[in-house]
Amino acid sequence: MPYIEINLEKIFHNAKLLNEILSSKGISIIGITKVTLGNPTIAKTLVEAGINYLGDSRIGNIIRMKEAGVNAKFVLIRNPSHSEIPLIIRHTDISLNSELITIKKLSEEALQQNKKHGVILMVEMGDLREGIMPNDLENMVGEVLKLQNIDLLGIGTNLKCFAGVIPDENNMTEFSEIAQDIQKKYDIQFQFISGGNSANYDWVMSTNEIGSINNLRIGTVILLGVDGIKEDPILKYYQDTFTFVAEIVELKKKPLFPKGTVTTNAFGEPSIFQNRKKSKEGYRIHALLNAGRQDIQEKGLFPKDDVEILSASSDYIIVDLKKNDFKLGDELRFNVNYEALLGAMTSPFISKVFI
Description:
The protein is an alpha/beta fold. It has 2 domains: about 10-225, Alpha-Beta Barrel (TIM Barrel); about 240-355, Elongation Factor Tu (Ef-tu), domain 3. The chain has 10 helices and 16 strands. Strands 1, 10, 11, 12, 13, 14, 15 and 16 form an 8-stranded mixed beta sheet that branches. Strands 8-7-6-5-4-3-2-9 form an 8-stranded parallel beta sheet. It is elongated.
């Protein structure tokens, strides 16, 4: 079975370093666990590194972490589904919201369960994913403050995820000013003015003017040691926190080009050979690995050996081994990006091995 090696020491290092740096700027972290499927062992590592709030987009992941004894405050970072509200009130401390009807239902359920539930209102700042339009925020805050058993803990925004809008001085300053105006209007103090995610890393590291922003929701920087915009490596952070390992299950010398009429592949994508000019005859050392797109996105894999990933089917990754002397049964190792990590951690066919 293919597997992914998870280096807890390196994840701890990244989390602790980032927490120390952001704390010095007055910014707290909600550590995001969704890309690891809420893995309790990784979650405990983040807590040990000093991150006390963990965020996930799936209530099932949060329940898994709680049942495994992860000692943290849990934040649902996706708008609550109405069907899941009883579970959300029972198992989370805070949820991100942008719909008043949903918050009213959270209030009703919190009353039934005799619990307080924290809410962070998401504000639309240009990326066009979730969020209340800024002009509507003041009235929304006024309505939320009337609800029983609901604690309005702050506001948040999200950039880069949908339209690709980058956090910068302009939108972060505007968001800070919105927070200041709301707090002054209602004479309240927000615990969370959450300016975004790992895409905010470059902005927060390049400025001394963070305004009112006091929180970020971070996963990628901690887990992969790269920024959230171009996924460039960050100095002093580890990028090899996760290593994907797959076994060679077929090893043959095969032609450089297919034989016959070429069309799209099984996923409707153009064949890699469709527009490739057949410049010469020849052969390659052609290997099939025991993982495919049902398990992982091969475009997010980066070989540690001098080999080339050609493509993948649902069951196999196809690799050109070049001049390397591999044999049947050998393992190939790969670094992963966010997309590949998401697939690997979600797949039940990939073992998780901690080192």
